[in-house]
Amino acid sequence: MRTQTTRTQTTRAQATYARRRTRWGALVAAAAVTLGTGLVVAPASRAADAPVEVVVDGDDVRADNVNGLTYKGLGVLSCNSTSNLLMDYKAENPDRYWELIRVLFGGDHPLVNHVKVEMGSDTNTSTGADPATMRTRDELADAARSPGFQLAADAKTVNPGLKVSILRWEMPQWVQQEWNKGTGTDDMYRWYKETILDVYEKYGYMVDYVNPDKNETRSPDYSFIKWYKNAIVDDTDFTDARYGIRKGVREKVAKAYHRIKIVASDENNTLHMGPAMLSDADLFGVVDAAGYHYMTDDRREGSADSATYLPYTKLATGDNTYGQDKEVWYSEGTGSFGYTDYRVNNNEGPGGASTGIGGVQSALDIANRLVKSYANSKRTHYIFQPAIGSFYEGAQYSHKELVSARDPWSGYLHYDAALYVMQQFTQFAKTGWENDTNTAGIWRTVPEASYSGVSGTENVDGSNGAPSYMTLADPAKKDFSTVVVNDSDQPKTYRVKAENLRLGGDPTMEVWETRAADAGQRYDANFKHLVDEIRPDGEGAYTYTVKPRSITTLTTLDKSADGSGGQRLPKSGERTVLDTDAHGKRSNTRDTFLYADDFAYDEEGRVRVGRTFETYLASRGNQPRYMVDQTGAWEVGGDGVLYQYMDQTMKDTAAWNKNTPNTTVGDFRWENYKASVDVSFPDADGGLAALGVRQQKGMAISDAAYNLRVGPDGAWTFYEYGTVLSRGNVAAADGYRLAVEAKGSEITAFVDGKAVATYDDPTPQTAGRVKLGSGFQKTGFDNLKVERIDGYTPYTGSQLDNMDSAVTYEGTWSRKASFGDAMDWYRSTSTSATAGASFTVPFRGTGVDVIGGNDGSAVLDVYVDGELMVRNAKTAATDKRLATYALRGLPTGRHEVRFVLKSGKLVLDAFDVSSGDRVRGAVDTAPVRHALTEVGTPKKGDYTDETWAVFARAHSAAKAAAKASVNGRKGLDTTGVEQVAGRLRAAYDQLVRKDAGQ
């Protein structure tokens, strides 16, 4: 509102409240008429060319509804290793980390108001494993192991009102064993309580909400939920030394602990809690917030007054037997699948057009989920799983976040355009939780001025052009914002009429919009920008036509004046490769190391956590640097050795993905290197230790392309993925030094410095990270080293996605982003089976790999800088993230490579660019000299011009390589030499004599 006049907020009269309840009851009754998939009937005006009529009536703004209709905004979920690398960002690039905290949690209109922490149990619960805060019943809780509790502590420095909630999925074995017997309630309570109090002791805040039940249960444990709440309220024991609570603050802690609220039951695809709360007065009194996952609709069974008909709507509105409103959360939902700046180049729209920032599983899809989950089930809080992707790509559910934070060594952060879409909700209202005196001014959602007709219940689809809008209003009725989502290819006109509101002397409405760029514009030109200012007509109505594939906020706030509306998100920065000195701390591209870790961390300084500074290992609960755990309890011991602690007494029994313990470290671009590590077996039960290289995807030790495993009896096994290549024995010992060297297609395994096996892979995986693994026994790892190999390029320099705007296409291509596979980079692919279809990749370097899951049927012609270099190149049958075709050995510099599909089918995922600038040591050019000798000196006049031109270019390149000095031509490595020689032989074999047809 533009006027500075203030008015006293009055209490709504009982008669008005009764009228509103009557009006709401009529609306609920009208919802008995359903459309298609159970949507409520649309507002009256729904002709194709008629404006959508929205009435924002001040009498519908329910200031006395302090729980159900207050707009809490957005939350983040930290769980199953998705936040692990954030602790490394904080240590290695603190400026970038704290910038992230401010962007997500800070400001007058925070994007995120809640951190939800799924307590770990060292087991894999989808993407990976979060550490258990208590691995045994008697171990003191250590919340510092969990990145989620730290994230919340840091977020509270810029948003003190931030809420924190916890729940479990699986549980530590010591709790699980008793729980299975039916006697585990006390142990469960102990685990929760000691974790909560340790969080308070370390970070100074009390958890706000607890879900005592299991995540995504299909049968809520109502009795335990009641038992747990009563246990919290009745608990008077805060003096036990285990809790670490100082005497002077125990009373304060007890009061805060007793105020913990209950959220239940985080169901997925079942809707039991709502009806149960309406049918059970005790349960209704215990549960403060009802939440469920991956569904936008309410339940619709029985008569309109039954507990199974719109139960969550009745909870939120207070239109229930108890006359009280409750919070209803979308307590776990998706982020935007893939990068919006890539997926805008899809051709999934009508006639092969792009869907822009829209389409299924897009930024606009997420916006429609917010709108529809409110319109259909009155959920006023949406929690992203995950909002921050801070784990290595290639694990389950990759590329499903709003912010990508996977390279802590470089500080690279990618803020997806979906954040602008979410800001269209959060920056045009005051979001959060109302205070006890109802004076915080949190904006209310307005059911009567909100509606969604888009199709679907999880992956929603707005291409039908149906209305989708949500209205938020100041409880004092002085301002309101209506958020409109149009994920169709047609414009949509809205007529928003304001009634019984106090808009002041200047009722001008601002129009803020986010959509994809128009032709010729920069990528973010149309992200969250002011596009118009409109005034009401004589009837108090504002009319505006919303553009296709856009989200628009119509607001009476004067956001253009405060400068926050047009604020841009930070730039991503450069995504440099992990290449450090011998200590693993500082970047060093000139030595022989790519990475090293002795797990002592003497090179590290103190790290800020919340408002305090702690020593490096203490700040992170002794978690090792840069490691993302897939299964197991990986922690640095007091002796400076990394141990995997999950033994037979703690053994995983209830993981989502059942694997032996393993953890991942490094850069997916690492290519030719030797990894080595000392392993030891302190467990009396023996055990197993494993070292793997070139891991691109998956969550088991067998997902490292080449891995070596050994036990204390000296028996070793060398694997390609999970297939045994060779076995053998060395002398039994308490420990060994394992190494695996990967150079080109040749892989060698070492035990104590001796080569025990060598494998020449005909279709090698060429790049990836390092993995460590063990059995379910305590196992030690020390002195990890990753070293470059003389004569070989150590890593690829950069990657282009198939949807990157720099890559151009001609001919028929299906460029898909919706429902993409998590194992495809950014969940997108471009596919063609049309002869003559082509794509062009520009880059600076010495070669490029064509990445994608393929059947090997595609045959290509390859043009380099406009000239045909390879005719009828065959592609390899490959799994996802592998190179179906590799082009190496080009001179260092800028190149443009055009690939033409001759026959077969080709799936494109990404392009890895090779650069020989980092090659060290001598490069043997003998293969090129041998090839020159083999082809001899054929005469140009004997062959067709086309085939001779290809041969001549290959011959010239080979001669240049052969004349190189002992250190090779700049940028030329061993793989490049092999390819130059191979192209020469192939070109010679493909020469066609002019007289061949005579």
From TrEMBL:
It is an enzyme of class 3 (hydrolase). Keywords: Lipid degradation, Lipid metabolism, Sphingolipid metabolism. The keyword Ribonucleoprotein does not apply. It comes from the Bacteria. Pfam families: Glyco_hydro_59, Glyco_hydro_59_C. Its EC number is 3.2.1.46. This is galactosylceramidase. The lineage of its organism: Bacteria, Bacillati, Actinomycetota, Actinomycetes, Kitasatosporales.
